[in-house]
User: Which sequence fits this backbone?
């Protein structure tokens, strides 16, 4: 079997100083634990790479940006430790984005669900297309957006995050997400979005790296406790995923 069928994280570094991270998975760019860990490590590595000025985070294809957690892996979790480790993967990606000293630009070309909304909330400047609807679906499968919640709340506020978390089966439009502050700009298609991304990146790679680093630290003030907080949240999700209710809900969702 092609290893890319299990998901992948690719990296490209341009001569101008742009580090591009592309992740993908055949199941709507959902994220198994191994890919989550690799994504977090890659963000950290590019953050430490002196030849990289700015990071672009994107996913493969033109449909879904990220469908969130891998349901196949969720349903295979059999004990608390395994559950904690899996959900810690999302904590690792969020914290890697938070602590990375480089600006991370997000490219959201399609729907973002669950952990995908968490990733979009963790970049520093997020572009999207009109196809980029968002949904926090966790409650619908018996869990809850515990790990991604702090990142989403930081970006769009408690009221909007609560709306997404409670009405877990309904998508919100890209324009809704822009109004709430998740997306900075929304475009009619990927071509227009990519032109705008290229324009911003061309400016940022010429900007003072120290100034960008200092700005990012200011932007993320008040989140220094997230290393511990998100792991605590991962334990909540790891416990809930073992419940009969959640296992039945995930199985029913997979059977659709």
Assistant:
């Amino acid at each position: 079997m092609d290893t890319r069928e299990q998901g992948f994280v690719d990296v490209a570094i341009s001569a101008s100083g742009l580090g591009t991270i592309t992740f993908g998975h055949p199941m709507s760019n959902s994220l198994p634990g191994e890919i989550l860990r690799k994504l977090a490590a890659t963000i950290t590595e590019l953050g430490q790479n002196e030849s990289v000025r700015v990071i672009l985070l994107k996913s493969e294809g033109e449909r879904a940006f990220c469908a969130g957690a891998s349901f196949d892996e969720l349903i295979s979790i059999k004990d608390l430790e395994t559950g904690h480790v899996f959900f810690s993967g999302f904590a690792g990606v969020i914290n890697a984005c938070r602590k990375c000293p480089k600006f991370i630009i997000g490219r959201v070309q399609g729907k973002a669900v669950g952990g995908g909304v968490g990733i979009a909330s963790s970049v520093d400047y997020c572009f999207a297309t009109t196809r980029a609807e968002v949904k926090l679906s966790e409650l619908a499968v018996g869990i809850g957006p515990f790990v991604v919640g702090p990142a989403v709340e930081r970006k769009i506020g408690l009221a909007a995050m609560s709306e997404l978390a409670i009405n877990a089966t309904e998508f919100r439009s890209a324009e809704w997400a822009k109004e709430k502050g998740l997306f900075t700009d929304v475009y009619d298609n990927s071509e227009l979005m990519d032109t705008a991304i290229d324009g911003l990146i061309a400016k940022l790679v010429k900007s003072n790296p120290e100034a960008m680093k200092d700005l990012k630290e200011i932007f993320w003030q008040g989140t220094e406790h997230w290393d511990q907080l998100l792991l605590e949240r991962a334990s909540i999700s790891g416990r809930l995923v073992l419940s009969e209710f959640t296992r039945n809900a995930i199985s029913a969702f997979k059977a659709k």
